[in-house]
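Changelog note: in this version the structure field was regenerated for every chain. One regenerated record is shown below for reference.
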Amino acid sequence: MRILVTGGTVFVSQSIAAYFLSRGHDVTVLNRGSRTQLPGVRHLCGDRLDPALDLRSEVFDAVLDATSYTAADIDALLNALPETPQYIMISSSAVYPETLEQPFREDMPVGPNIHWGSYGTNKIDAERRLLARVPHAYILRPPYLYGPGNNVYREAFVFECAEADRPFFLPGDGSMPLQFFHVRDLCRLMERILTAPPDTHIINTGNPVSVTVRQWAALCYQALGKEAQFVSVNASVPQRSYFPFLNYAYQLDVSRQQMLLEELTPLPEGLRESCAWFAGHRELVRRKPLTDYIDENLL
């Protein structure tokens, strides 16, 4: 297939481009050219929001859109394309209001979420604009994505703590659940949609079983052959100052996904892959001063 991937140089979009390239497809990436391009892809240098962007001479079988955050992003790309081929947009679980009963299902109403703010409401606008203009498009709503290439300071932070034999500081007793999804499984799901389009066009993604933050951190330490020692932090301390996730627990119902993709990457295996990638790509991770805060305020 001739596939257009928006972005293609950072974590999710780069993983998508690399996956479909490895599967023998003709992959074109659209980005501003400010980063190193993935070997083997065809690069279209341009800003999707540039009114002068013109892709009418291009022919694609599918658009895999990992960089739409607003309705304007959707309009800009669709206006530049000559037609609307198969289209998959990566949205977010942030579209569900925190007040809904969990687990969140795709047929539940979307709306503002106090934890995600404008990020969530902008994603809602993007989803609505896409389905209004391309009714046959697909929208995927993942929880926290992880895997090789993750430049967000999440598991990388825990790996660094493990390397330094530091204790790990947990919010409270560490029982807050988190739901993850390996980026390769996201790519496999997209491939399944392209080859056998399902009837449902909005799909939650994620491991069907959540893990507690204590379990997740322990698995990160184990990826380096270490055993985690934990310190509990009082709820009065702002969680994001020392811990890489929001103080917000939610669960997605992934029944639709499971009908399309039964086997998923086990979390321990995925974290070992993430650890191996991090060991050779430390400079790509966007660090935050979590350790500094811990040293100055919690030790």
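Spot check on this record: The two ends are 55 Å apart (CA to CA). The CA atoms of residues 38 and 252 lie 32 Å apart.
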